Amino acid sequence: MPLVHAFVDPEDAHKAAIWLCKKGLVPKERVADDERLAVELWGKKISNPIGLAAGFDKNAEGVDSLLDFGFGLVEIGSVTPQPQPGNPKPRMFRLPADKAVINRYGFNSDGHHQVLTNLKTRTRSFLYKNAFTLSLTNPEVDESQKEAYVVALPRGVSRALRDGKLLGVNLGKNKISVAESNEDYVRGAEELGPFGDYLVVNISSPNTPGLRALQRREPIERLLQEVKEARDKKLPHHPPLLVKIAPDLKDDEIADIAAVATSVGVDGVIISNTTISRPENLQSGPRITRETGGLSGPPVFPLSVEVVRKFYQLTEGKIPIIGCGGVRSGDDAIAFAKAGASLVQLYTGFAFEGPGLVGEIKEQIAHRLKEQNLTWKDVIGADHKK
To answer: d(Cα 198, Cα 193) in Å, to the nearest integer?
Structure first.
């Protein structure tokens, strides 16, 4: 991987990785997950708590290969209703000394239509291959799959199409959309919701003008209420609704979001997106660190963990949290869990270290848990129980 990083443009490397995943030209993890790693969330058992964050597979091109790497959950997107190219290139910059990345992609997306086509093709292929094992005459089938031009999926089948795995769909907003309108997110829930085990309202990307303003109390309350109502009216299987927030929020802003999440009844929160701050301990030079965009990787880790800790306290652990930001080891993942996260996601570490990192993190977690005769479920929120 270091050799690739030295000679290949980061965005070109990303495209090449997606192409390999799309073609299935990637290694597969063949070891079953340790039972200590299992967690139950939203009524489903997940075989391990390590997920791939949104941003890697924006258009659902390589979902199955990514699941083959051993992730417990894979999140696609962000997906915008209309196709859009995102910001001008270059827009992704490596900080090798910090194992970090700055990006200003700007929600580049193939749009709902193409992503739906990719998801429908995947679902149709699954059903054809498993026609003899699914109860196709079950009256409890999910009608939402009729539009996929395939036989309907039974309700109990994960949208990841794997036992013990989840597929998340991250919803974005077009740059040209009216700032005050929530229609893009409502459409996303209605159109992409049938294919997700959970949905994410992304209002925390720093690369779309005005988007982070939606994190203020009144806008976020109105937004989440509208998306939740659309989900409840249009989607028979009611995928859990999550919101993804920034690590740069002030304490009063975190408190407002916690209050809104509780009152609206969202099913979870992802903490966090990239940061617009530049920590003083960055080792990379100012030529790179001064680039505009969101910073991801290890420098974000302490910021994200602290927001997780505060949010868990404010909600008394009643709203599930997915921790995201700088996870590179089993100890990092456990730190998120102790602060209050039920699941964790990674992206930048995966991009730097490759797919082998997923198995390494799971092995490290299992080793730590075995040493202390604990399970993953035991460590969730442990810092608050001392």
So the answer is: 8
DSSP string, 91-158: -EEEEGGGTEEEE-----B-HHHHHHHHHHHHHHHHHHHTTTTS-TT-TTB-GGGGGGTSPPPBTTS-
> Which tens digit of pLDDT belongs to each residue from 14-47?
999 999 999 999 999 999 999 999 999 999 999 9
Asked, for residue 124, whether it belongs to a domain, the answer is: no
What residue numbers bound the domain in which 289 lies? Answer: 2-109+155-384
Whether 304 is catalytic is no
Distance CA 126, CA 136 (A): 13
Best CA proximity match to 270, nearest among 78, 16, 140: 78
The predicted model scores a pTM of 0.95
Q: Which of 47, 144, 205, 284 is catalytic?
A: 205
Secondary structure (3-state) at 4: helix
Residue 25 sits at the vertex; the CA angle it makes with 119 and 327, to the nearest 5 degrees, is: 75
